[in-house]
Amino acid sequence: MEAVRNVLRKQVSFRNRVKEIPSTTYGTFGLYGYPAKFIPQIIAYALNEYAGSGMSVFDPFAGYGTTGVVSNVYGHDYELWDLNPLLETFHKVATMEQPKQDIDSLLAGMKGYDHEFIPDWSNLSYWFPEEFLPFLFRVWGFYHSLADDEAKLLLTIPLIKTTRIFSYDDIQRQKLSKSPKSKKRVGRLLNGNWQDIFYKKVEEEVYAIIKGVEEHHALSPKPVESAVRGGVDILTMDLAQDRDILITSPPYLQAQEYIRHAKMDLFWLGYSESLIRELSKNEIPYRYVEPCEIKSDIYHEMRGQIEEAHILKIFDSYFFGVLGALTRLQEKISSYLLLFVGPATLRGRPVPIDDIFLEHFTALGWVHEITLVDTIVARRMFFYNNNPATGLKDKRMRTESLVVLRR
Ligand SMILES: C[S@@+](CC[C@H](N)C(=O)[O-])C[C@H]1O[C@@H](n2cnc3c(N)ncnc32)[C@H](O)[C@@H]1O
After folding, report:
1. Which of 152, 259, 295, 369 could make an SS bond with 363 (beta carbons 3.0 to 4.6 A apart)?
2. Coil, helix or strand for 341?
């Protein structure tokens, strides 16, 4: 373990090291607050430092798809995967052409529409007051009636964000849950002119998309090849072609529930309850994963200290899932593995995931170039006062590391 503790580490501030991207929410990077989203400067920094011209980029846990958008701007072909089908939707919006729509007539069309779309969701009436539902069915009916791709792309994020505000979900909590605060919010809406509020919010959000897309084009995205696959399980997918750089931020060790967070959006976008249930079952670390060899002393030392069966289950699913998949995929990566992780805790004790990954991949023949350590400033994370797996108080993650490994 001593060897790993002495590895080359450097403190950096990614956000201050990349001048080309003016802020973390510039362009289309900030259009949707995907939980634990990369700031674009991490990818930009990595591509500036390590990507030779013509190199392709692969992110198998792509989330919002930031890796793809930055690769697009820097002129690299890319491939993105995520279990969450929203990846494909978000990425189409984030890389869309400058819109030519007449926004006033688009919004007027939405207001006058009277065919309903009803999501396939048995819990619908638990999450929305009955007063809102017929209205939401018609608004979403309009969305699903649109044949025009551009109009749909402009409306997707505005509608999912606004619909959430009109639901009982506590938006601050990062996972679908009701709270006294969210009930109060809905109560206030019900007492006001809520239809106007809804339309106004959608309009504001549509203009935010237009501004973001305009800024994205000011970054001069290049004509590159891309493959974007949402709704896929990393454990059963294979790369069709070799890639040069794998850069990714795997799920967190504890308390991540991406599909549970996304499901309200997925239902309104037309995904079925049975599909969403299937997706949830594949989420790492809340599933069974076949054991695989983990080549790390730190990992085995930590595992040996876990007594509780339920914690062991999550620990195993996490490392067997993430490292099992990445061990198979790295065979198709020619140059760099860049793994972005936050140090997690288990029963109050830190788990140095970055060092475990480092030990494992160096044992597989990769060379550790450096670990870059950044301080978390503001990132949308899942934070709980108590870790639901252990019932114990969580220490907040304060720093994150980018482990850089080369062939
Ligand atoms: C830390 S997030 C990635 C965030 C991303 N870097 C961004 O900028 O938005 C981890 C992702 O892993 C995905 N994930 C979890 N289990 C998965 C699985 N079995 N296969 C593929 N993706 C999975 C989650 O849906 C989540 O989007």
Report:
1. 295
2. strand
In a 3-state reduction of DSSP, which class is residue 245? strand
Query: Which among 299, 304, 323 is positioned nearest to 61, based on CA atoms?
Result: 323
Report the candidate in 245, 255, 213, 249 with the shortest Cα–Cα distance to residue 234: 249
- pTM for the model stands at 0.93
Cβ-based neighbour number of residue 183 at 10 Å: 13
Residue 234 CB less than 6 A away from ligand 1: yes
Query: Tell me: domain 2-95+221-260+267-406, CATH 3.40.50.150, correct?
Result: yes
Measured N-to-C along each axis, helices 258-268 and 86-94 cross at an angle, to the nearest 10 degrees, of 70
Q: Return phi, psi of residue 94, to 5°.
A: -65, -20
* Sequence ranges of the domains in the chain: 2-95+221-260+267-406, 103-217
Ligand 1 binding pocket mutation candidate from 28, 38, 61 (most atoms within 8 A of CB): 61
Q: Is 83 in the pocket of ligand 1 (CB under 6 A)?
A: yes
| Residue 172 DSSP label | G
pLDDT tens across 385-397, in order? 444 444 444 444 4
Residue 350: how many CA atoms within 13 Å on its side-chain side? 13
In angstroms, the CA 178 to CA 169 distance is 5
Burial of 26 (0-12, 13-18, 19+ CB in 10 A): middle
Among the ranges given (28-37, 78-87, 267-276), the one the predictor scored with the smallest mean pLDDT: 28-37
Assess contact for 176 and 264: CB atoms under 8 A: yes
From the alpha carbon of 283, which atom of ligand 1 is closest? 16
The pLDDT of residue 383 is above 60:
no
β-bridge mates for residue 402, sequence order = 340, 372
- Cα 392 from Cα 331, distance rounded (Å): 39
- Helix, strand, coil share of the chain (percent; to 5): 45, 15, 40
DSSP string, 366-407: -EEEEEEEEE--S------SB-TTT-SBPPPP-EEEEEEEE-
**Ligand 1: distance of its center to the CA of 309 in Å?**
25
Q: Closest by alpha carbon to 61, among 265, 261, 321?
A: 321
Q: What angle do CA 106, 94, 175 make, to 5 degrees?
A: 95
Residue position matching structure tokens 């995931």: 353
Rounded distance, CA 395 to CA 113, Å? 49
